[in-house]
Amino acid sequence: MTAVDDLAAGGRGGGPDGAGADPEGAGPHRPQALVFSFFGGVVLRREDAPPIPSSVFLRVLDGLGVAEAAARATLARMTRKGLLERTQVGRAAYYRLSPETSALVERAGVRVASATPFEHPDETWTLLSYSMPESRRDLRHRVRAALTWAGFGGLRDGVWIAPGTVDVAEVFAEGGLEEVTELAEWFAATPLPGVRVDELIRRAWSVDRIRERHDQFIAAWWAGPHEGDPLGQITRLGADWLQLLRTDPGLPARHLSADWPAAQSTAVYRRCYEALLPAAARGLDDELGRAVAG
């Protein structure tokens, strides 16, 4: 598995990571997704991007319903996979993103921070077709995961479409799937007259499910941040937002209902993130200071 596979898989759901349900958010998250969110939402915002002591992760994750044993297991597993780098200072363990993972999280952060993360130039699409020989069926799941992460929806077996212009070669390279470029063709495409784009979208994506995820996000964060730990809240907010961005690749609202909620979701996220960031940054400074003081 590559860092792309892990980031794409780090969404909701229980399982061996031991994530508990979030009583106030849009749903439970795997601890790995929360770690990615913590780094992307707070740590990488700092110029120094310091290594983070394990005690900070344990406390933040505990506040989000992740037991200490599960949190420690997540940090160890992410280190074994090369997603994190671990250093020891006295009796304390410190973690930072590996260079590959840091670059990936920063690239994802461009869309995370965008003022229009669900919009693309008018009527631009990327159409992709591939044929997977029987001898390479082991790649099928990884290809599907990489394409889904990049915003593609499946029209039929081996034919995928994504809103906007997607650098497919880069998608495959980031997923460690360079060999698949020999099995695929992709084109920039625009619909011809007579094409029912709204019907095409509903064939490739579960529009009702995507709307439900928007509605869940808005309901969870509409009232703004809650009282409590800003580091934990900004981590949960980022995990909720990343999950929504994975779910909705930016389907063009003009082909959906008049009250399509993508713009409202974006406004809610920006308002909450900007409200939480100053206190979260101060909280991280306090945590790092306590760790140095021992």
What does this entry look like structurally?
The chain is of the alpha+beta class. The chain has 2 domains: 1-118 and 206-294, Arc Repressor Mutant, subunit A, CATH 1.10.10; 125-190. Helix content is 49%, strand content 12%. It is built from 11 helices and 7 strands. The chain has helices at residues 3-9, 31-41, 54-63, 68-80, 99-112, 140-149, 168-174, 197-204, 207-221, 230-247, 262-293, and strands at residues 52-53, 84-89, 92-97, 125-130, 153-156, 159-163, 184-189. A 4-stranded antiparallel sheet has the order 5-6-4-7, covered by helices on one side. A 3-stranded antiparallel sheet has the order 1-3-2. A hairpin with a 2-residue loop joins strand 5 and strand 6. The longest helix is centred in the C-terminal third of the chain and has 32 residues, at 262-293. The protein is globular and about 65 Å long. It comes from Blastococcus xanthinilyticus. Residues 1-27 are annotated as: Disordered. Pfam families: PaaX (PF07848), PaaX_C (PF08223), PaaX_M (PF20803).
